[in-house]
Amino acid sequence: MSATLVFKALADPTRRSIIDLLKEKDMTAGEIAEQFNMKKPSISHHLSTLQTAGLVLSERSGQHIIYSLNTTVFQDIMMWMMNVSGKENEK
């Protein structure tokens, strides 16, 4: 996990909205795109960024790709953040 990639991915409000959608259920790119007022290539770019950061997983199902949230990365980031704040309290 690269914290830099995760934080870069989370910095964009559209990507945070995609994560919120995927918290509810796994979705195809088309289903995700229906929730936004932007072109499908833009959604694909956001999904690619989320995948590169490890926040989103994809699995092919027939002709569709199903996207889901990778909660392991969120847990790792939370542990890292708790560890950083814990060290600061030691000073």
TrEMBL record:
InterPro entries: ArsR-like_HTH, HTH_ArsR_DNA-bd_dom, HTH_MetalResp_TranReg, SdpR-like_repress, WH-like_DNA-bd_sf, WH_DNA-bd_sf
Keywords: DNA-binding, Transcription, Transcription regulation
PROSITE patterns given in the database record: HTH_ARSR_2
SMART domains per the UniProt record, alphabetical: HTH_ARSR
Gene3D superfamilies found in the cross-reference section: Winged helix-like DNA-binding domain superfamily/Winged helix DNA-binding domain (1.10.10.10)
GO molecular function, one term: DNA-binding transcription factor activity
Keyword Transcription regulation: yes
Domain HTH arsR-type stretches: 1-89
The name this protein goes by in its record: Transcriptional regulator
